[in-house]
Amino acid sequence: MKITVKNNLIISLLLIFCTLHFSGFEADALSYDYTASIEASFSLMMNCLENPDKPLYSGGIVLNPELNMGLEGWHAFGDAKMQHRELTGNKFIVAQWQESAK
Asked: pLDDT of 25-70, one tens digit each?
């Protein structure tokens, strides 16, 4: 059997398909946080909640939640390096952990 460029392409595509198919695409489901609600958000704008939920992670106020002022108000933990990025109008923070030099 003579191996040609066409056969190589078919074999390569078959290997890629099998790798992707059997690589185990899976999603790790997390439990949903039901403490956030539209009613709570609306009530906070209009008046205080009569019986507010306890704050998660010691509470606090998020500064610059829409990232309009870059990374102002955001802090990295440990040796993480933060970057402010924007892609097709979506602003987000990338945090990368840097291994400490010993």
From this structure: 566 667 766 666 555 555 555 666 678 777 776 666 778 888 889 8
Residue 17, token pair as written in the block: 């398909």
User: What does pTM read for this prediction?
Assistant: 0.39
Q: How many CB atoms lie within 10 A of CB 82?
A: 14
Integer CA distances (angstroms), 61 to 18, 36, 47, 56, in order: 48, 14, 17, 11
The residue with tokens 């500064």 is: 63
The DSSP output letter for 86 is E
Q: What are phi and psi of 11, to 5 degrees?
A: -65, -45
**H runs (alpha helix) in the chain:** 5-22, 38-46
